[in-house]
Amino acid sequence: MSLKTILERYLGKCAAKAIKRDKPLIIGVAGSVGKSSTKQAIGVALGSLEQGSGVIATKKNNNNELGVPLTIFNHPAPGRSFFSWIRLLSRATSCSIGLTSLDANIFVLEMGTDRPGDLFYLVTMAPPLVGVITAIGPEHTEFFGNVDEVAKEESTMVRGLPSHGIAILNADDPISQKVTLPLGVVRLTFGFHADATARILETRILVDEQNPDYSGMEMKIAVFGTTHVVRLRKAAGKPHSYAVAAALLTVAAIDGDDRMAIDRLQRQFEGMPGRMRLLRGVKKTWLLDDSYNSSPLAALSAIRDLAVFPISESNKRIAALGDMLELGALSEDAHIQLGRMVAECGIDMLVTCGTLAHATGRAALEAGMSEQSIIHFDKSSDAGRFIQERMHSGDVVLIKGSQGARMERITKELMDHPENAEKLIVRQTAEWLAKI
């Protein structure tokens, strides 16, 4: 066992002891897609961005064996700093033995999984009273083997809830709806389905050419029969409507203030970098930056959102799609389905990047997309320059791919103010920028 693993296990034990003693409300968020946005929306709705609120939500993507304790102890990632590790271990030890208390009475914890058993470890460390599953689909199937095993892993979030717990599930996801809950656990749902507890009635993307920062999306959501209108800035796409619906439902489930939650979402929620973030591009174009990562469900959803993005008849919708990784035996079929969707949605130009994405281009061609509208590049940086040369005012570009495809390089090439890249897009640290 490595020193890093030993330290992570120690922090996990300390976190479990501190939670058992202080008894904060734990809201856990799991799922194959949309975890980070949903976690952020719930946190914002409950006041995590306001000092003294008593609410802490997972920062960035700290959703693993180290990240969850970092959130519990409200401590930044120590990296390679010896002194930062000492401070973290001291904080953890102090909280675990009762010398100090945790900084919050509500934690909104994103919990991720790469391999079987990851989620069980996390929910055992920080047992949720409210468990949220965003959706279940193909992810990390290189390690899980098939979607059934993914479903088994992700459902760990709610299968262990206490008898007075609350499960919040995606009403539009048939796999999530099949999850069996413990006796007594309340089942609540969100989505477009007519029977959803928090039903998304309508969504639309709003583009303001005069004030780009106010562009975003508007949605109508009925929670327990009461309809709310929420307008978000700098965020576009149905994944955000799911995140907001889950957030409003969570607030209602714990008897929070819905009006305050909506006000916070409208003022403070702008989407996370690389997750369907609406950015202004060069030449007065628009970018749907979804470059943080990719999976089949998320990629198909992004193409549908691109297809309804409001543009004039003379403008183009361009999809820049990179490889979807860690799908194992499901990989080729997933890339083929994505290419078919691009063609079926009438996307004007498809630019693919990487090795696996070749299948996406071939499938789009076979589904009826013209050959001259499909271009492939091995490197995302080359694709960015190509798109910039051919884009015109009013065009919109979707940028999506798995982390290894480095599609954020295209976003940086195309964004209106690249000097703001560190704040607006993903993977802009010196360590990431140094990687080939």
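That was protein one. Protein two is written in the same sequence-then-structure order:
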Amino acid sequence: MFEAGVLNLVLFLPLLGIALLLALPAGNHDATRRLALIVMLIQFVLTAWLYARFDSRVAGLQFETKLPWIASWGVNYQIGLDGYNILLVLMTAFLGPLVVASAFTAIVKDVKLFYAMVFLIQFAMMGAFVAQDLFLFYVFWETMLIPMFLMIGIWGGERRIYATIKFFLYTAFGSILMLAALIYLVYSLQTTSGVISFAFADLVKARLPLGVQEVLLAAFALSFAIKVPMVPLHTWLPDAHVEAPTAGSVILAGVLLKMGTYGFMKLGFPLFPDATHAFTPVLMTLAVISIVYGACLALVQNDIKKIIAYSSISHLGYVMLGLLSLEITGIQGAVIQMVSHGLVAAGLFLMVGMIYERCHTRELAAYGGLAKLLPVYSVFFMILTLASVGLPTTSGFTGEFLVLLGAFKAAWPLYKLGDSLPLVLAVISVTGVVLGALYMLRFALGFLFGAEKAPHQPLSDLSGREKTILALIVAAVFWLGLFPDGALQKTDLAARAYKQLVTTSRLPGSAP
């Protein structure tokens, strides 16, 4: 199928970009930047075409490629698009050229190597989303670690070595446990059915005792929860964000954190439904703690990068709440919230990078009165601030509203049956919206409208390149906020399939 070939091209274009970078003469930074931007733009155009071609009326995989890879192990090169990943793949491709363009003036050291790392992490992130074989998914999952480690370690801030080591130790520890769990899962499938396969479609048929499911889910959940990150596994995130270059922070907040929530949605909960029900009270409690605690931490930060970093913990807590609600509304809200956070957080980190290039400080106290000094910058900043708060007509409102609606719809019947915990947690989660308004408006008040601070040098407002980058993000935020129906149609059948998988017992002897 032609579309399947296009999807493979979308996946491997970044590797082609690396090969083209190697062919460029050393020291020609302008040519390097132009090439990187062109490759990323082509990838986005092709991805947008696939998004338009994706049929929301068809359940399951579309544009699938399945080729034998390690046949004796049951490993295949299998990729495809479905309702789980279609929006995330589009978002990843959309942010790619913006990341490249944002680094035009910020990265002046080892430019070719930097863009090679951007290409490599784009390849790995895209691969993790489209992979339909668990072995292939794990390869992409681990590959992401290398370029992000180097991006922080080479182009990061003063404490970059500490941040990279902490990032590596957290993520590597979780990945090792996931590897052990997936090997056991494949072995269990072989012993019970005689089939050796790493394909998601086969692994969800495995029937395991509750105790085994709980151990395996705990291993997967630890790896995914670190990536989200959920409290108390969140402490690596602020350090990584603060020390990463702006492009690294955009990739980290925009896409990389979604690997954790996507992992729960695609793998963790559907593979082990009985264990998921057993763990739901704990996981839902941790999700709500993440919402409130992340917001409280953001409220007291003075480093503007840390404010956005801690806000990510809070916003992604809503994603987990939506997935655990097992309501179609909440599940779809979780997917929209993933995309919305990717756009808004990416935009805010880009704006932090833009002001840092001008003033060379991230301390909130050093800023004030930017609304007069940089009016165009301030307009974009307020739009993204209000999107982060969840103002109606923006993507932030769509995602959070659907998640909360799903959480209350799921909690009310349980409350009438005597189980009050889900309703209590849903009520507490609403405070995250209030706290979000507090920390973001506090941020904006001091940043834009506080006492005017005399800058060390004359400040210039946004350049044409910077305006274009932010205008595209703002357009996407309003598109998802004003016209969410198209995106919701794309994810509807996948949300229903997810609910069916997680609510169907797969204990030994249960009905097929």
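Residues 2-503 form one domain. Keep this in mind for the problem set.
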